[in-house]
Every structure is written in structure tokens, then in C-alpha cells.
Amino acid sequence: MNNTYTIREAIPDDAEKMILYLNQVGGESDNLLYGENEFIVPVEGVKRKLAMSKESENSIVLIAIENEQIIARAELEGYYAARIRHRAKFSISVKKEYWNQGIGTEMIKRIIDQAKTMKIRIIELEVITDNLRAISLYHKMGFTDIGIYKKYFFVNGLFKDAVIMQNNL
Ligand SMILES: CC(C)(COP(=O)(O)OP(=O)(O)OC[C@H]1O[C@@H](n2cnc3c(N)ncnc32)[C@H](O)[C@@H]1OP(=O)(O)O)[C@@H](O)C(=O)NCCC(=O)NCCS
């Protein structure tokens, strides 16, 4: 296992690296919102988003860094409305060359700790039904299936369903 990476909260100055990362990792599976080079948000926009997350009391973006490059990213995005403020949406990706080294597990542990600190009670996510690696990781980390979102993705000319999961903290 590779132990030379560090995990920390992303800051606005990480924006350019984040864009490079998202455009690369998007091409490494069909399981993310953006495909290869489909993340076309300008640097300023990403900077603003990272600044907002950093200021926020119920959102956080964590990155794993090795050799000054982002190798993984996990995000918890809280809601503004009072009635759903106990919930937060989760997403994660790890660069393919680093899969199966425990980085995803470690990022989720950190996110769960952060969520508890932020008094979030439910972490929620959707995962494409054929993404068995992610599904097994989420189950291991305490997520349970609560439903199926039909036609969640349209990718490569096909609709794909997603499992909706939640983790009650
Ligand atoms: C899903 C993802 C985040 C996992 O990250 P990771 O760093 O490889 O995760 P870990 O190494 O901590 O754990 C992977 C687990 O999947 C298991 N696994 C690996 N291949 C598998 C497979 N084909 N089927 C089922 N489980 C599998 C491993 O055994 C490991 O479980 P273990 O800790 O019990 O041994 C990473 O593969 C990724 O970024 N995928 C592309 C983007 C993505 O799918 N994101 C999630 C969108 S919802």
C-alpha cells in the first residue's frame, strides 16, 4: 500500500489542479458526472466554489495529494434549507492508478468524521448499479440501499440506473 499521500481540505488555490484532476479521472470510468475533458468550469468558478465550501458549516471538499498532484477527491455538500440541513450529499473519486490501495476507505472515514463534527445526521449518495467496486466500498463504510433511481445517467447512448444509499450517523 502506498502511504506517501496526504489528505487535507481543498483551498481556492487548488482550483487549477482540481480541474486537471477532474478532467483526467472523468476518462477513467463511466461512473462520474463528467467524462474525459468534460469539466469545463473556468478556474475562477472552481476557486469560488472551493472558497464557499471552506467557509461553509456543512460542506467540505477533501483531497489526497501525492507529489503535489491531486490523486483523490471526496466531497460532502450540505443543504441550506433548515428542514434538510441534517443531510449532506457525498461524492468521491480516486485516480485509477491508485485504486484498491485503501485511499477511498480512508477518504470516507475522514468525511464521516467531518460530517459528525458538522452535526450532519445522514450522508446520502447515488451510485450506478454496475459500479460494484464503489457499492462494496460504501456497504463496508456503513451505507445502506434505500432505493433505485431509474435512468439516473445517460452515458454512451444508454440509460443507467443508480442505487440510492444513505449512512445514518
Ligand atoms: C470507487 C472508488 C472511489 C474506490 O476507491 P479505492 O481507493 O479503490 O477504494 P479502496 O481501495 O479503499 O476500497 C476498494 C474496495 O473495493 C473492493 N473491490 C475492488 N474491486 C472490486 C470489484 N470488482 N467488485 C467488488 N469490490 C471490489 C476492494 O476489495 C476494496 O474493498 P476492501 O477494502 O474490503 O478490500 C474508485 O474506484 C473510483 O474512484 N472509481 C471511479 C469513480 C467512482 O466510481 N466514484 C464513485 C461514484 S458513486
Give an overview in words:
The chain has helices at 15-25, 43-55, 103-117, 132-140, and strands spanning 6-9, 60-66, 69-78, 87-94, 122-128, 144-155, 158-168. Strand 3 (69-78) and strand 4 (87-94) form a beta hairpin. The chain starts with 5 loop residues before the first strand and ends with a strand. Helix 1 packs across helix 2 (43-55). It is α+β, with helices and mostly antiparallel strands and 169 residues long. 28% of the residues are buried. The model has no long low-confidence stretch (mean pLDDT 96). 28% of the residues lie in helices and 35% in strands. The protein is globular, with a radius of gyration of 15 Å. It has one domain (6-168): Gcn5-related N-acetyltransferase (GNAT) (Aminopeptidase, 3-Layer(aba) Sandwich), CATH 3.40.630. Strands 1-2-3-4-5-7-6 form a seven-stranded mixed β-sheet, sandwiched between helices. It is built from four helices and seven strands. Coenzyme A binds at residues 29, 31-32, 92-94, 99-105, 127, 131-134, 136-137, 140. The site of coenzyme A has 21 residues, from strand 4, helix 3 and helix 4.
Contiguous helical run count? 4
User: What is the residue-mean pLDDT, rounded to a whole number?
Assistant: 96
* CATH fold group: Aminopeptidase
Q: What multimeric state do the chains show?
A: single chain
Strand content: 25-35%
